[in-house]
Amino acid sequence: MTMQTLVPKVGLSGAAAVLIFLSVGCQKSDEPKKPSTGDKAQSAKPVAEPVTASFEVKIPEGLPPLPIPKDNPMTAEKVELGKMLYFDKRMSKDKTVSCATCHDPKMAWTEHRATSKGIKDQVGDRNSPTVINAAYMTSQFWDGRAATLEEQAVGPIENPIEMGHDLVAVCAECEKVPAYKENFQKVFGTDVTKEGIAKAIAAFERTILSGNSPYDKFKAGDAKALTDAQKRGMELFMGKASCSTCHAPPIFSNMQFYNAGVSCDKKNPDEGLKKVTKKDSDMGKFRVPHLREVANTYPYFHDGSVEKLEDAVAFMAGGGKDNSNLSMLMKAVRGAGLNDQDKKDLVEFLKALSGDYPKIDPPKLP
C-alpha cells in the first residue's frame, strides 16, 4: 500500500467529558505480509443475527469526539471479545506472545524495552508505540503503513518476528474453542474470521483513552492544576520552542511524518516512511508520536534509543541530528536557542500530560 502523508480526519478542538452511545450495528523488522481483513475465503455467511448491546464510551476531559468507523460500530460484546483476543497468547505461533506482551496495561500500554521481543526470542528494530489514544491517529505504526486500527490489529499476528502465525490457522484454531465460536456468532453472526478478529481487537483498543490530565484541568479553568514550571513549559511548548507545530493539541500530534535524524548515523539506518512510499524524500521520516502519557511510555523514538524524557527533550530542543533530509521544522527548533532551564520546564510540562487511562487485568480466557 502506498501511504501518503496523512492529516487528521477529526476536528482536534478541546472537549469536555462526552458520552457517546453506540447501538447495534511494535515494532517492525522485515516487511510483514499484510493480511487482508476482508478475505472472502475466511468470511462465512451469517447463520444468525448478531445479538449486541449498546455500549457507552466515556471520553476523558480534554479529548475530542472518538472517531469510529461506520463498518465497525462499538458494542459491549465486541469490546469484550476483543479484550480476550488482545490478551490471548494463542494468537502467536508458539503460544508465547499476545498483543498485551508488547502493549502492557501495566506499562502504560507499551513496554519499557527499546524494541520488543517476539516468538523464539527474536528482537525487532522498532519500539512498540502505546495503544493509548491510538484510536485518534490517522495512521498506525511508526511508518504509517496501516491506515486503520483494524489493519494494525492483525498485522503483528503474521509478522514473522512478532507473533509469527497465519491468520487462516488462527481462525481455525479459535473456531475449535467453543466460547470463541459462540462469541463470534453472537457479535458478528459468522464463524471466526480474520475480519472479525481485526474488528474486535480494534474495538477494544478504541476504549484505551487518556485525558483528564493536569493540562486538561488547567485548560478547563483550574489555575492551580499546573505548577509554575509547567506553566512556563507550556508557554515554551506553544510558543518559542514551536513544539506544538508537530505535537498539536489536544492529541499532541499532527499525525504527519518528519525526519528528526534519530539514529541516522547507523550503518543501515531505518528508512521509515520511505519503505512504504519508496520515495527518497521520505527517507528517515517517522510519524509524530502523540505526547499524552509520554512520561510513562519510555524509552523514546522509533528505535527506543533514548531512555530518559530529559534526554529526549534535549535531543529535540537541539534540533535533532543533522542529515541530508532533516526537517526544516527541526532546524527552526534549534534556532530557538533553548537553554537548560527551558528544557527543564518543557520536561515538567510534558509530565502534566499524564492523566487517567484504563489499568486493567487480563480477562479469563476460554
Can you put this structure into words, describing what you see?
This protein is mainly alpha-helical and 366 residues long. It folds into 2 domains: 18-205, Cytochrome Bc1 Complex, Chain D, domain 2; 214-351, Cytochrome Bc1 Complex, Chain D, domain 2 (Orthogonal Bundle), CATH 1.10.760. The protein is 30% helix and 4% strand. The protein contains 12 helices and 4 strands; from the N terminus they run ββααααααααβαβααα. The strands form 2 sheets. Strands 1-2 form a two-stranded antiparallel sheet. The chain is globular and about 60 Å long. The protein starts with 17 loop residues before the first strand and ends in a 15-residue tail after the last helix.
What's the quick description here?
This protein has 366 residues and is mostly helical.
Keywords:
single chain; 366 residues; mainly alpha; Cytochrome Bc1 Complex, Chain D, domain 2; two-stranded antiparallel ribbon; 4 strands; 30% helix
Beta-strand segment tally = 4
Counting structural domains, the number is 2
What is the CATH class of the largest domain?
Mainly Alpha
Can you tell me the residue ranges where pLDDT is under 50 for at least 5 consecutive residues? 1-44
Major sheet strand order = 1-2
Please report the number of helical segments: 12
Major sheet, described briefly?
2 strands, antiparallel
Write the layout of secondary structure elements.
Layout: E1 18-22, E2 55-59, H1 76-87, H2 99-102, H3 149-158, H4 167-175, H5 178-188, H6 194-205, H7 214-219, H8 228-238, E3 257-258, H9 274-277, E4 286-287, H10 309-317, H11 328-335, H12 340-351
Antiparallel strand pairs: 1-2, 3-4
Helix pairs in contact: 1-6, 3-6, 8-12, 10-12
